[in-house]
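Table S5 (text form). Sequence records supplied for joint modeling of the two-component complex.
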Amino acid sequence: MTTTLTPPKGTAPAAPQPAEKKRKNKGSTGVPEATPLTYIGLSLTVLLSFFPLWWMFVVATRDSAAASARPPYMWPGGNFLDNLERLFANTSANFTLGLINSAVSATVLALSVVFFSSLAGFALAKLRFKGRNAAAVGVVLTMAVPVQMGIIPLLMLMEWFGWRGQIIAIIVPFMVSGFGVFMMRQYCVQAIPDELLEAARMDGCSTFRIYWSVVLPALRPAMVVLGLLTFMTQWNEFTWALAVLTPANPTVQIAINQLNQSAYSRDFALMFTGSVVATLPLLILFFVLGRQLIGRIMEGAIK
Amino acid sequence: MTLLSHGGAPPGGKEEPVLSPPGNDANAKRERRQIFWTRLDLKVSPYLFISPFFILFAIFGLFPLVYTVWVSLHDWTLLGGNQGFVGLDNYVRLVQDGKFWNSLYNTFGIFVIAVVPQLLLAMYLADTLSRKVRAVNFFRMGLLLPYLTSVAAVAIVFSQLFGTQFGLINYALGFFGIDPINWQGGTFSSWVAIAVMVDWRWTGYNALIYLAAMSAIPRDIYEAASIDGASRTRQFWQITVPMLRPTIIFTVIVSTIGQMQLFTEPVIFGGVAGGTQGQFQTTMMLIFEEAFRFNNYGYGSAIAWTLFMLVVVLSALNALLSSRIKGA
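The corresponding structure-token record, covering 631 residues in total, follows.
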């Protein structure tokens, strides 16, 4: 049970692990047994976590009147494909374009954040240079500053560049991440032995070559987590996209908000179908990455 | 080529070939070139590697933040551009603006009724999960599920669930004899609805953080306590909670920073205006409305900078308090 939580080989060891193991060896003393009440409480929580998503799916598979039916439907119907068709045909939402924009921006950003973070993290962890400590502190400081408050000048910047309303405006400003650099630096310290780098240096590798052929392969597990987290964050981004993009060229989140804003004839089946499509990639991510993410959160690696 | 690659080498370098046998002149040159490049590589590469991060952060993170102050001191609109320096006029207006105070009131109100139950519930769940539970991974995954969903999509679903006429929540409350509540219409009721959306997403996440911290507490302490006859509840309040203090403070700080910028859930719930009376318009929504609906960059920046200072002060206060508590 405990071992399945362990991040893949090479990932930073989960902090709670030793304690848990110790507890196991001690047998039944110490750790209190779960009572039936424990299971009831936990099951209720999981049910509450799951219910809104289930409800979203149920309404998305029925017709527009189903959301207000009494007693409420609790089981999916057969209208999902119809709803999907209507969703993609809806001219005010531009859902297809939204999907493409979200997928492209999230993918580009995931790659870019992983690349720049590993590059800088490697330098801060393993290379010797003047000002290294100051730079490392600087990275941590950038994480502590709520730069979102600069949203107005950032939009002005986009206007000066002529990027307002274009997809590039939700990509370029977020190509680096202080959190990413920090995470990669921590990982480099643990996962890459100095001897390996020295050996590569002896063989006459340039620094970039060392990064590319020695460091990158060793960083892979952390890169996957960082990349998927970045993808998720960008896929979810709402505030900035609402400010800088237009409904004519939206992301998925802006597209479903557009359906939501047409207040007079709220078509819940349509809105919920959009929500299902907007959530689906994240749910897939959850099933692929869930366990690793739990390990990371429990290490305190993710804010 | 050779000359170029020698770049900054002193002119005396020309005499160097004397040191090596005349026949190996070409070899020596190549070697020197290699040494030069290696040195350059060692010296410059680290800076090249870290510079993309710092350059991009400076342009798209730091500059906008600092420039906010400058814009806030001007009468600045989208169409008219910079209409001149007005000193602190925007801040004077802000102090007198009922909408600004209303937005702060809403932000703090939602913060309190969201974060306090959220962290308490998270702690209870973590305590539960730290017992010997079967299928612990299933429950952990169940707790994390809400964290990995689309914020906007879930806000849409909750807005429907909180509908006055057709929402399931009023329907369920009806079984307990409670009349339909106009969730969106009232101040407190709309705060509750938004707090539920926020808590649905973040409770499990915080529970996992607490769970990690709990499993690092040495078991012997509990054993000693139970030998001394301390009940489970007493152990929880007198061992678990004090030992978790640093983690609790961490989650409080992170939640504070996040909640001060609350935006997506209330916007989906009822637009940037935050309801008919602005009863759930947060400060972030007001910034958005002033700057991007009314195109008033100067005034919007004044609000943004005030909120920024508020976040900084609150974080500092949290940090100060935590060091005080630790010292005590």
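Note: Chain A touches chain B through 109 residues (CB under 8 Å).
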